[in-house]
Amino acid sequence: MIQMLITGLICGALLGFVMQRGRFCLTGGFRDMFIAKDNRMFYALLIAICVQSIGVFTLIQLGIIDFTAGNFAWLGVIFGSFVFGIGIVLAGGCATGTWYRAGEGLLGSWIALFAYMVMAAVMKTGVLAPLNTEISSITLPENSIAATFGISNWIFIIALLLITGGLVYRELRKPKIAIPSLKPKRTGLSHLLFEKRWHPFVTAILVGLIALLAWPLSAATGRMFGLGITTPSANILQYLVIGDAAFINWGVFLVLGIFIGSFIAAKGSKEFRFRMPDKKTGINSFIGGLLMGFGASLAGGCSIGNGLVMTSMMTWQGWIGLLFIILGTWTAAYFVYVRPQKRRASQSTTSQQAV
Amino acid sequence: MQKTLEVMGQVCPFPLVEAKSAIESIQSGDELIIQFDCTQATESLPRWAAEAGHQVTNYEQLGDAAWTITIQKK
Question: Fewer CB within 10 Å, N or C, chain A?
Answer without folding.
Answer: C
